[in-house]
Automatic annotation (TrEMBL):
GO molecular function: dynein light intermediate chain binding; microtubule binding
Organism annotation: Aptenodytes patagonicus
Name this polypeptide is given: Protein Daple
This protein's GO CC annotations: centrosome; cytoplasm
Lineage: superkingdom: Eukaryota
Example GO BP: cytoplasmic microtubule organization
Amino acid sequence: DRDTDKKRIEELLEENMVLEIAQKQSMNESAHLGWELEQLSKSTDLADSEKSFVFELNECASSRILKLEKDNQSLQNTIQELRDASLTSRERSLKFVELEKENQQLSKKIEKLQNQIEKEKQSNQDLETLSEELIKDKEQLRVVMETLKADKDRQIKDLKQENDHL
């Protein structure tokens, strides 16, 4: 039983390390998405490219949220397994203390992941709002340009008439 419990704990620790690596990769993806958003805000040339980028960003954020939720569920399963293992162990007192520390660390990680999911959701909403505002600004600029062009054409016509009159 002790050997089995030790092997199970080692497996869980390895799984925990894999999840931490996945979380770091996920954070790198988030930073990359932030960079892409910054690039988008600098370039308002094409509304279609903005919509496409927002769509892609939404898909990335959604897949990232799903991945974080899966990681969260996996961590919760790991916590439950660690609790079950600690109850069946003969060296209950020492292992229980160690497992509780791991459980606390995993609970903190779960909380961080949940916070990160909420931040991603908020960031996604902010990106959608920003994209909509950029599209509206672009449309307003187009209307202003058309008005200015019409005014310019009218002034040219007036000046030609005045020139012909003179």
